[in-house]
Design a protein that fits this description.
Blueprint (H helix, E strand, L loop, with lengths): L1 E6 L4 E8 L3 E9 L1 H5 L6 H23 L8 E7 L3 H18 L3 E5 H12 L7 E6 L4 E8 L2 E7 L5 H12 L6 H8 L23 H16 L6 H27 L3 E5 L6 H13 L3 E3 L11 H12 L22
Parallel strand pairs: 1-4, 4-5, 6-9, 9-10
Antiparallel strand pairs: 1-2, 2-3, 6-7, 7-8
Helix pairs in contact: 2-3, 4-10, 5-7, 5-8, 6-8, 8-9
Amino acid sequence: MDILSIESSCDETAAAVIRDGREIISSVVATQIEEHRLYGGVVPEIASRRHCESICAVVSEALEKAGTTADKVDAVAVTFAPGLIGALLVGVNYAKSLAFGLGKPLIPVHHIRGHIAANYLAHPELEPPYMCLVASGGHSHIVEVKDYTEFSVLGRTIDDAAGECFDKAARAMGFPYPGGVFIDNAAKQGDPKKYHLPKPHTENPYDFSFSGLKTAVINLIHNAKQKGEKIDVNSLAACFQKTVSEILTDKFIAAACEKGYKKIALAGGVAANSGLRGNLSEAAEKNGMRLFVPPLSLCGDNAAMIGAQAFYEFQKGHTADESLNAYATMSLDKVRY
């Protein structure tokens, strides 16, 4: 089954053709990072306009690279939640029109479910059940993947997500947007023990809280400036990355141990961070677990992951008609169409 999938939840306009949920026939991503970098973060209105300008060309390119045409695909899939509402509406309305015009099934896909499914494209042998850590710019979840469309969220952020914390801390350190890659590079040249940073407590042991850590970094920098002291940015980046990685890894591994999982996975934009990948890999080996991690190309937002999840949503009969709407927020274990 060949599915044409569309992703427009934030600042990437993407389209892909995916076969049977496991094979990438084509994948195209048009990013807006350079433009949003001018403002230090994503500007929703600009993102929506750029999606409108790019979506036709991106879909056409994905079909061309796949050596097919829209009338030959078996279904159309689209991210419908969560994300920036204006950005989501561009993709949803385009997909609805295309599916209706072609007489093809329309498959709505939850963005975070898509991130989890990115692992299916990289690891054909991966099948539920397993535990997954999802860490991205807007989300931090510990998810029990019971089946391809059945999820249980054991923990989530109660304030800032890990990726958001990376971006805000990076900005305070003087790095451009998006900050994760700059912190990652700087951390490799710094001393991860030079500065002490807090690990916030949460009532639910598997929930995350990164707001206090972000504030601690900002206060440390401001206090140093007020005293005329110079901050070792590389070492601060190393300490920050180490702290975030340890928080994510420790809680995730503890949850996996409690639930008895020996098969675990990582997903989301922050999954590209070398510190987190290394830390989680060591912890998995220590606890006799097998870790599945997507390649860097599938960590950020892309339509390939949406097409992968769409295959399994379709098998469960999760399709929609032209009344499908977009939603800025929606829990991945309580999806409504």
